[in-house]
């Protein structure tokens, strides 16, 4: 049994700034952070990202994955937004993670520096889906491999599914920030997610944060849905 405090990140996946603001206000008593990602940033732009994020903890999920020079420069371009958390793909390789670390350190003061989080294996992949990308070792082995690469090269934490939390805690201890999407309250539709757990199970397994999108945003009452998840996390 874990006594870790596991907090909720609400993924506000929409193109519409007014919708995002409504959701942000609705979940704010229950979610300690909001996530804005590719769908929102591409449609609404980064001014809108800043507007929605004002006064909130922002998980900016751009999943950067490019050559080291481009990733470092892109992170430099984000310094005016000051996200609390920022994502890259660990599979971009050691030099890419190192460039991202350097860019975080050089472009943000210590108080404003985002946590650099490395996506290991997307929660929409199972062993078979991963094998189609050429990786035959299975999800768990690949998550551990990419976790080691990312943490060794300066990532503050990892994005993984809750299924890998125990193995990651056993290998890397309490220090890395572990964030798990692919979270579904009992009975909720998995959709395109393959490696899912409930909020309570993710807390027990050692998550620092869980990311939840559609179970909140597609609920008839998003505020109540967020409240129920927060209550489950509080145990
Ligand atoms: O980086 C992420 O946040 C992420 C990584 C991952 O492996 N799986 C994953 O689902 N996510 C994000 O987490 C959110 C999950 O949304 P729902 O499936 O609607 O709860 C989406 O915004 C995804 O982009």
From TrEMBL:
EC number: 4.1.1.23
Molecular functions per Gene Ontology: orotidine-5'-phosphate decarboxylase activity
Key word Ubl conjugation present: no
Binding site residues for substrate: 13, 35, 61-70, 123, 184, 193, 213-214
Pathway: Pyrimidine metabolism; UMP biosynthesis via de novo pathway; UMP from orotate: step 2/2
Stretches of the chain forming a coiled coil according to its record: none
Catalysed conversion reaction: orotidine 5'-phosphate + H(+) = UMP + CO2
Location of the Orotidine 5'-phosphate decarboxylase domain: 7-229
Domain of life: Bacteria
Family membership noted in the UniProt record: Belongs to the OMP decarboxylase family. Type 1 subfamily.
Protein name: Orotidine 5'-phosphate decarboxylase
Gene name, Swiss-Prot/TrEMBL: pyrF
